[in-house]
Each structure stands twice: as structure tokens, then as C-alpha cells.
Design brief:
It is found in: Mitochondrion outer membrane. The chain is of the alpha+beta class and about 550 residues long. About 30% of the residues lie in helices and about 40% in strands. It is built from ten helices and 23 strands. The protein is elongated and about 100 Å long.
């Protein structure tokens, strides 16, 4: 599926910023901005050969921006996908009268056609590694015989061992646009006994509403397997999945059938009904509600050997680390289990989670899970077979203290160093582009000199708006960052050139695309600081890079005491 462009790509040549118009600008507003810049950059206004050449280049940039934004179709494509979207082959055959939604669909279709050539090179690897740890000796120390105690056998280090492991891996290989081969395998061991299996599945998309899959498997634990799976959308809100299989073993052939019916109850809620016959026959129903801030699940099952009811709730914090806290209760013939935990994003591709499980008769366990891209690492640690408050306390506090220490000593320094390294690479890769932008900005400032002189004379005659000083870039205001060097450029002339009728209006877009501006610190936070005079009174304002700005304003006024 095609995706829209990254912010960096969209901001490299921002047509709206270049013309200094709103993204919702009308045709009249576009035309007025275009004419204003044409008068400034028209090559015929300059006699000097060098200035004439620079003016011609800037004039062409302005003309290119205007031609894209004035055409409804090109503008819709640019708004969604930036300049790269305009370069996709095939746009010339698209009908002119299309909505942005239809244009997005057409863009994705064209992108799909280009990506089909690389299908043979694509895989979707997924894997899980699970390591079970028995740490019951930390809390369940058996009473020793008197003779052992006298002989000094009562001391020693608690015994912690790995009692089970499981490794599974799968890859997908698209054969055609409709056919996919899936190869998977797993190895397991528990208390010295283990085995493995390998499976091959062939999936075909039969239509936009469904697909079918045939699976073949072999292993030393369950024997050969032959199965089939079908998915079908019956209505836009209702779908069904059916699966059947034959498991061959030394005890004979064991058939199995599983059917799942699912329906959208509302925008955020799904209802499921599952029936399973054969191995571990059961009937299960569940309701799942997933919103931006929470996830709720209720499930009930009747079956052999497990009958239970379960309810879980997860709260999602709206922070950049995507922190989640969760809790669940599960009760059935096997006993009752209460679980609580949390998970958090620790890097761009990694999510770390910990869950404490307290149950009767299961005891207390700590489960640690790390998701790294499409790989999952799972570590269930069994602490005790009893309900010991000390085990619950250490299972809760221990991971939290360990995480805070690792976060402070390892993760944050690593991410900080990684961010600096990525920033250096970004600046190196964009050095030539920034040099070009800087040259264009300097040329624009030279071409603005005469216009700015006339604007200042007009503003002075009516005690209007005079930009005394203006800087754009990275400012260092925090005392803890005094060692960092400010990276700013003087944009006094470009800002004064934008003054009209004693007003300066900047739209909600990155200011690095304005005429006479460029990005002095790629990838870093930037601001615009302006010191100006209006009606003979000094004013000052600091504005974020993408924030709209209107001056003059009373709130910008500098008091005499200041």
C-alpha cells in the first residue's frame, strides 16, 4: 500500500511557504501572492547579468509553485503526496474531475503497479523466542532434615534454572499478486524433552472479499498435518473464518474443525463467536472494544478441558512512548488468575512490557516481553507455587526499579547518541541541497534590496511597521544547554519585504521555505525571533517554526521598564 511522503520530503520545497499563503488559499489569494513575487523577481527588472540570472531562477521556482497550486488536480496530489506524487508515471491519463479521495486511490494503484516488479524480493519474517525460567527456589525453600542442617547443607545460593524453551519463525514469499507461500517452523523443549515441526502454507486471494489457504505440516511431536482455511467477508460488517485439519499420529487420525463468526457491533467494537470440534472441543464468545485511549475484552468459554470467563482492560496514555497499563481477571475450572502490568516503547522499533500473574493454584509469575520489529522475545519467570506477599512485591517493584535504572543509564544515553548520529547523517546528506537553498536565499535578499528600501520609506512616513532585526534558526535559551551553539541566520530583509500596509502575516507552514530563508540547522527545532517598531514603540516576538504569525500585536510590546 502506498504511503504519503515524510515530513522532511514535504518540507524540502514547500510551495505554500514559498508563496506565503494558507493551505486553504483561494485562487485569488494565490494569484495575488504570485503577482507580488513576480514583480520582485522578474528578470527584466535587473540589468546586472548575475542578478538577472539569479532572478530568472527564483522566478521559475515561483512560477512552478503557482502552476501546481492553481490546478485543482495537481494541488490535490501535492497536498497528499508532495512533489514526488507529481512525478508518478500515469497521472496524464487520470481524469481531471476527481476528488482528493479518488486521486489518493489512483495514486496507490499506480504505486502498486510499480511495486509488483519487486514482489519476488519481499519477505515478511516473524519470529518468537520464549525462555521459561524456574525461580521458585528463591521463595519456596523446603525445610531440610535435621541431619542436613547440622551438616551445613542449609546454606547455598538459590537454584534458578531454564526449564523450557520455544523458538518459532515464519517468512512470507509472494509468488504473484494473488498467491503467497508461507514457510514456518518451531522447536520446543520442556524439562529435557522436546521436538519440532515445519509447515508450508499456500494462500490465494480469491477476491476482494476473501482468501483461501492450504497447509501441510510435519513434525516429531504431533505427526503430519493436512489443513485448509477459508476467510470470507459476508457483508461489510460481518465476516467468517473456517478451518479444518487432519492430524496424523501413532494413535490414528484426529480431525479438527474451527469456525469463527465476527461482526462489527459499532465503530470500535467487535463481537466474536468461535466453535471448535476435535482436539480440545469448545465454544467461545468474546466482545472486544478498542479505542484510541483504551482496550477492553470480555470472553466466556465452555469446553473440554477448559471452561472459564475472562475480562481485561488496557489504558493507553497519549504520550510519545505509547505507555499502556493493563489488568485482567480469569476464572474457571483451573482456578483464578489475576494479572496486571505495563508496556512502553523504548526505541523506534522496540516495545518492552512486564506482567505480574497471581493465581490459585498457579502461584506467582513474572512475564517479561520485548517486541523488536517483527520479533518477539518472551521470558516467563515462575517465582512461587504459593501466594506469598513477598513474591508479589518483588515481582512488581523489581522490574520497575530495573527499568528505571536501565532507562537512565543505558537507553536514554543510547537514544541521545543515536539521535545525534542520525542528525549528523541527515545534515551530511542534505549539505548540497542546503548550500543550494542558501545561495537562493542570498540571491533573493539581493533582489529584495530596492523593494525593501521603498517599503521602509513608506512605513516610516506613516509611523508604520519597521523590522529592526530578525533571526531564524536554533536559539539556546536553556542554561543547561549553554554549551550548545546557536545556529541562526539574519532574515531582517526578507521579513521587511513581506510587510504590506503596516502588517506582516506568516501562514502555518515551515518558515524555511519563505523567500530569502533557508534551513540553517536541518533536523533541529527552529524559531523566528523578530524585533520591530510600530508607531514608534519597540516590539518583540518569538514564534515557532510552523506557527502562524501576525504582527503588530499589543502583546508583543516591550515595556519601558524592560
Amino acid at each position: 500500500m502506498a504511503a504519503s511522503l515524510d515530513e522532511d520530503e514535504l518540507g524540502s520545497d514547500d510551495y505554500y511557504s514559498l508563496l506565503n499563503v494558507r493551505r486553504e488559499a483561494t485562487q485569488d489569494e494565490l494569484k495575488a501572492a504570485y503577482r507580488r513575487l513576480c514583480m520582485l523577481y522578474h528578470p527584466d527588472k535587473h540589468r546586472d547579468p548575475e542578478l538577472k540570472r539569479q532572478a530568472e531562477h527564483l522566478f521559475n521556482l515561483v512560477h512552478e509553485a503557482y502552476e501546481v497550486l492553481r490546478d485543482p488536480q495537481s494541488r490535490a496530489i501535492y497536498d497528499i503526496y508532495g512533489k514526488r506524487g507529481l512525478d508518478v508515471e500515469g497521472w496524464e491519463v487520470v481524469e481531471r474531475k476527481r476528488t482528493p479521495a479518488e486521486i489518493r486511490e489512483e495514486y496507490e494503484r499506480l504505486q502498486t503497479e510499480r511495486e509488483e516488479r519487486r514482489l519476488q524480493q519481499r519477505t515478511n519474517p516473524k519470529g518468537t523466542i520464549s525462555v521459561g525460567i524456574d525461580a521458585t527456589d528463591l521463595f519456596d525453600r523446603y525445610e531440610e532434615d535435621y541431619e542436613d542442617a547440622v551438616g551445613g547443607g542449609g546454606g547455598g545460593v538459590p537454584h534458578v534454572e531454564i526449564n523450557k524453551m520455544h523458538i518459532s519463525q515464519s517468512i512470507e514469499a509472494p509468488l504473484t499478486t494473488k498467491d503467497t507461500a508461507i514457510l514456518s517452523g518451531s522447536l520446543s523443549t520442556h524439562n529435557g524433552n522436546g521436538g519440532g515441526n515445519i509447515n508450508l502454507a499456500l494462500r490465494r486471494v480469491t477476491s476482494a472479499k476473501g482468501w483461501g489457504e492450504v497447509e501441510l505440516g510435519a513434525g516429531d511431536t504431533h505427526g503430519p498435518l493436512l489443513g485448509m482455511k477459508i476467510f470470507r467477508n459476508l457483508t461489510p460488517r460481518f465476516f467468517v473464518t473456517a478451518q479444518c485439519g487432519l492430524q496424523f499420529s501413532s494413535r490414528g487420525v484426529r480431525p479438527g474443525v474451527t469456525t469463527v463468526f465476527a461482526r462489527h457491533l459499532d465503530k470500535n467494537t467487535m463481537g466474536y463467536l468461535q466453535w471448535r470440534w476435535g482436539i480440545q472441543s469448545s465454544m467461545n464468545t468474546s466482545v472486544v472494544r478498542d479505542t484510541k485511549s483504551s482496550h477492553f475484552t470480555f470472553a466466556a468459554q465452555l469446553g473440554v478441558p477448559h471452561t472459564f470467563i475472562m475480562m481485561s482492560y488496557q489504558y493507553k496514555f497519549q504520550d510519545e512512548d505509547q505507555t499502556k497499563i493493563k489488568g485482567s481477571v480469569k476464572s474457571g475450572f483451573f482456578g483464578t488468575v489475576v494479572e496486571y502490568g505495563a508496556e512502553r516503547k523504548i526505541s523506534r522499533h522496540s516495545v518492552l512490557g512486564a506482567t505480574v500473574s497471581v493465581g490459585v493454584p498457579q502461584g506467582v509469575s513474572l512475564k517479561i516481553k520485548l517486541n523488536r520489529a517483527s520479533q518477539t522475545y518472551f521470558f516467563p519467570i515462575h517465582l512461587t507455587d504459593q501466594l506469598l506477599p513477598s513474591a508479589v512485591f518483588y515481582a512488581t517493584v523489581g522490574p520497575l526499579v530495573f527499568y528505571l535504572a536501565i532507562q537512565h543509564l543505558v537507553i536514554r544515553p543510547y537514544l541521545r547518541a543515536q539521535k545525534e548520529q542520525d542528525l549528523e547523517k541527515q545534515q551530511e546528506s542534505s549539505a548540497s541541497n542546503i548550500a543550494r537553498k542558501k545561495q537562493e536565499a542570498e540571491s533573493a535578499v539581493l533582489l529584495m534590496q530596492e523593494s525593501v528600501r521603498r517599503i521602509i520609506e513608506a512605513e516610516e512616513s506613516r509611523m508604520g511597521l519597521i523590522v529592526l532585526n530578525a533571526w531564524y534558526g536554533k536559539f539556546v535559551t536553556d542554561n543547561s544547554r549553554r554549551h550548545e551553539r546557536a545556529k541562526v541566520i539574519d532574515v531582517t530583509v526578507p521579513l521587511q519585504c513581506l510587510v504590506k500596509d503596516s502588517k506582516l502575516i506568516l501562514t502555518e507552514a515551515t518558515k524555511s521555505g519563505l523567500p530569502g530563508f533557508y534551513d540553517p540547522c536541518v533536523g533541529e527545532d527552529k524559531s523566528l525571533k523578530v524585533l520591530y517598531q510600530f508607531r514608534g514603540v519597540m516590539h518583540q516576538v518569538l514564534s515557532g517554526d510552523s506557527e502562524p504569525l501576525r504582527i503588530p500585536k499589543q502583546s508583543h510590546r516591550i515595556d519601558a521598564d524592560t
